[in-house]
Amino acid sequence: MDQKFKRIAVENSDAIVQMWVEEINSLKDGNYTATISDELFESTNREFVNVIFTSITNQGSSKAVEDFSEKIINLGWPLSYITDGLQVFRRVTVDYILSQSSKVDSEFFSNVLESVDAWVEPLIRQLVNEYSGSWEHIVSLQRVALQELSAPLIPVMDKITIMPLIGTIDTERAKLIMENLLEGVIKHNSEVVLMDITGVPVVDTMVAHHIIQAAEAVRLIGSTCILVGIRPEIAQTIVNLGIDLGKFPTKSTLKKGFTSALEITNRKVVDLEKKAENIEKMIDSLQGE
Amino acid sequence: MKPQSCVNINKEWDIVGARQLGRDIAKKMGFGTVDQARIATAISELARNIYLYAEEGQICFEVIDNLPQRGMRMIAVDTGPGIKDIGQVMQDGFSTSGGLGAGLPGVKRLMDEFDLQSEASKGTRINAVKWLR
């Protein structure tokens, strides 16, 4: 039975493809693929329908399907293009086979449905799997990328290091912050670490607790941790929550924190040009004598 | 009173979702940046309590719009172990998880109205309101 349907479908592939393309084109208007050029759309459709027929004629060979899904994923076309395409193919093929048969009873009808489903379903499964696999891959890559960004430590100058924090701090990130902070302080031999929380949207008790612990740990290994970038509204909520951040110095901006870090390490920033000007003036006055 | 919008709390990142939704509502209602931060922090505390102690629950937001007073209500509901001694948890510095113990009393100070109902092994329901001034 199945072989017979398959023969009908393959022998009349031109007619089926014709119907399929018409349906797909009608879906295109005002739809997800509206921005895609007609030429590309047509050539991809042709390739798609070829892939479908190859997979029907020699079941098991999935290389063509793999290549095709990879292409569609690279083009960035939505998954609905594939699912729509296969649903339309199923409908069109069933219609066609039924129209070619003289005697149609319910048993015959269910046989047709069963065989066509058996052709299309593995394709849907495979293509959807490839698609979601590529999404999962992207998500896991982004997670790694985010983790690398999550607790950076920048040695700005001798003995002074800055850790800028941007975004939400969750438990995992809080652990990373603590580890990177301590490791970095030892590695860069820093006397002062500036922890900048300008980009942290909310400081609740958990975040505050982690900051306090990190600062305390930094103190234990002999350095000073200065908390900078405390916005006025964050300062008010910290006070409302009743959190005591009095054990280590805090500053409103990174700039102020950096100045006091220089003070702690017994240094200051000097304007070179002014100095040069002063020296020139001195030389001038000396020459004048 | 407008219909509620709710966020389910099952994993740690749901706390961020709840906070963002709450902050958006507060911003739309016209709360200032300080009150927005207060509301976001309070949501963060309540959501974290659900995540830490009850494992799952829900936070709902409601816009109260009966003149002359406007405000935002948040309701945190869970079916967790409940709180044995409410007086104790409302004291600063009490924590069963090694935290700072400032969460619930902090929320009470951040918000204008605060109501806590809890029954052991049945769950907890917290109702807090911030009025728009």
Automatic annotation (TrEMBL), chain A:
Keyword set includes Zinc? no
Molecular function GO terms recorded: heme binding; oxygen binding
SUPFAM superfamilies membership: SpoIIaa-like (SSF52091)
Q: Which InterPro entries match?
A: Bact_StressResp_Reg, Globin/Proto, RsbRA_N, STAS_dom, STAS_dom_sf
Judging by the UniProt lineage, the source's domain of life is: Bacteria
Q: Does the keyword Coiled coil apply?
A: yes
Gene3D superfamilies documented for this protein: Globins, STAS domain
What protein is this chain from?
Answer: RsbR protein
Native source organism of the sequence:
Virgibacillus indicus
Q: What is the lineage of its organism?
A: Bacteria, Bacillati, Bacillota, Bacilli, Bacillales
UniProtKB/TrEMBL annotation, chain B:
**Domain named Histidine kinase/HSP90-like ATPase: which ranges?**
34-133
Q: Which InterPro entries match?
A: HATPase_C_sf, HATPase_dom
> Which top-level group of life is the source organism from?
Bacteria
- Which SMART domains is this protein grouped with? HATPase_c
Which controlled-vocabulary keywords does the entry list?
A: ATP-binding, Nucleotide-binding
A Pfam match: HATPase_c
MF terms from GO for this chain are: ATP binding
State whether keyword ATP-binding applies: yes
Its recorded name reads ATP-binding protein
Q: Which organism is it from?
A: Virgibacillus indicus
